[in-house]
Amino acid sequence: MKFAMKKFHLVSKYANYLTWDEKQNAPFKGKQMMLKETIKRIVYKFLQYSMYSAIKEQNLLELKNRLTKIVPDLSEQYTSHKIEGSYLLDKMRSQHSFQISLAQDAISLLNSKKRENPTIVDIGDSSGTHLQYLQVIEGGNIRTTSVNLDPDAIQKIRDKGFEAIETRAELLHDHPDFNGQADIFLSFQMVEHLLDPINFLHSMATKSKCDYFVITVPYLNRSRVGLPQIRYKDDKRPFKAETTHIFELSPDDWNLIFKFSGWKIIKSVRYTQYPKKNPLTLLRYLWRRIDFDGFYGVILQKDDSFSKQYKDW
After folding, report:
1. Selection from 166, 210, 219 nearest residue 189 by Cα
2. Does residue 164 sit within a domain?
3. How many Cα atoms occupy the beta-carbon half-sphere of 232 within 13 Å?
4. In a domain, 292, yes or no
5. Burial (Cβ within 10 Å: 0-12, 13-18, ≥19) of residue 227
6. Distance (Å, whole) CA 281 – CA 13
7. What phi, psi does 208 have (nearest 5°)?
8. Where are the alpha helices (DSSP H) in the chain?
9. pLDDT tens-digit map of 27-84
10. What distance in Å separates the CA atoms of residue 250 and residue 220, rounded to the nearest whole number?
11. 18 in a domain, yes or no?
């Protein structure tokens, strides 16, 4: 025991000593790390300016500023992580302005009677934020329901005074609290997380009653399978639906799936995180490397012209 303790103290004594080579390289490594951090900060500043130029070019800046006043704190937007830092906050605000703009467009398509008091169901809602926006913008006359499989998200939504149903999106029609009706369904950045988006979309088309379905997804030029937990590292830790993209498809491929599953596209918008009319458009290549080009959004209306031709649903 004494020998073991003595050996431990000897190891402890010399554990913090550096070799000659390590001493020589220590200042260089420190400067290298500082340089990397400086470059990283510069890159993210460029990306922030890219987003600012993009939303200004896409006429979303005024809406973004208004949404900021309605919900000043977005730190608890997700259960899996906090939204912290100016870059992530700007990214989230810009994304929300695009999504709410599309939702407003869908509301404007409703007949005058429904516009007075629309029923909106947000499938995949993570915190009730979008419904907060719409309640204020539309004068508080919206009847809302949120859907999520995460009990923490459901609690956050209910704490804000909204109705919420805890279930998987694919099983929504089996839930006793869901009557299958809404004037508008919303699904922001959700279908790419689903194991079976086609059957979900077909189920919504055939089992629910609605005027429009608003969907946004990541915008990629080329389709791919996501699954970053498998693609980029050998990580054996469990992961959840909220943090896992499965199908990351191009707009053209999503359009085929929408039509196949029983919908027609009333409006489609490609929101980019970079401007298209100034030199910052070159940042698209950087965005593609570290994130996405932007987001793709559609307003859908039921149309079984193609889905009824398929005989094996």
Report:
1. 219
2. yes
3. 7
4. yes
5. middle
6. 56
7. -105, 165
8. 2-15, 20-57, 61-70, 86-109, 112-116, 129-137, 151-159, 197-207, 228-231, 251-260, 284-290
9. 555 656 666 777 778 888 989 999 999 999 999 999 999 999 999 999 888 887 888 8
10. 5
11. no
Distance from C-alpha of 277 to C-alpha of 261, rounded to nearest angstrom: 36
Joined tokens for residue 115: 């516009």
DSSP 209: B
| C-alpha 228: how far from chain center | 15
Nearest by Cα to 133 from 188, 81, 86: 188
Give the pLDDT confidence score for residue 7 in this predicted structure: 39
Cβ neighbours around 107 below 10 Å, total = 21
Q: Which residue has the tokens 């990351």?
A: 248
Compute how many other C-beta atoms are within 10 angstroms of the C-beta atom of residue 60.
21
- Helices 61-70 and 20-57: crossing angle in degrees, nearest 10, is 110
CB neighbours of residue 127 within 10 Å: 23
Q: For residue 166, report the phi and psi dihedrals to the nearest 5 degrees.
A: -95, 105
Question: Does the pLDDT of residue 10 top 70, yes or no?
Answer: no
For position 140, which CATH number holds?
A: 3.40.50.150
Domain coverage including residue 233:
31-309
Quote the number of domains for the chain: 1
Q: Is residue 52 part of a domain?
A: yes
Distance CA 279, CA 192 (A): 31
Phi, psi angles (nearest 5°) of residue 182: -165, 150
- Short-list 281, 100, 73, 109, CA closest to 183: 109
Query: 86-109 and 20-57 helices cross at what angle (nearest 10)?
Result: 20
Enumerate the β-bridge partners of residue 186: 122, 214
| Model pTM score | 0.86
Strands 247-248 and 294-302: unpaired
Tell me whether residue 258 is exposed, middle or buried, using C-beta atoms within 10 angstroms of its C-beta: 0 to 12, 13 to 18, 19 or more.
buried
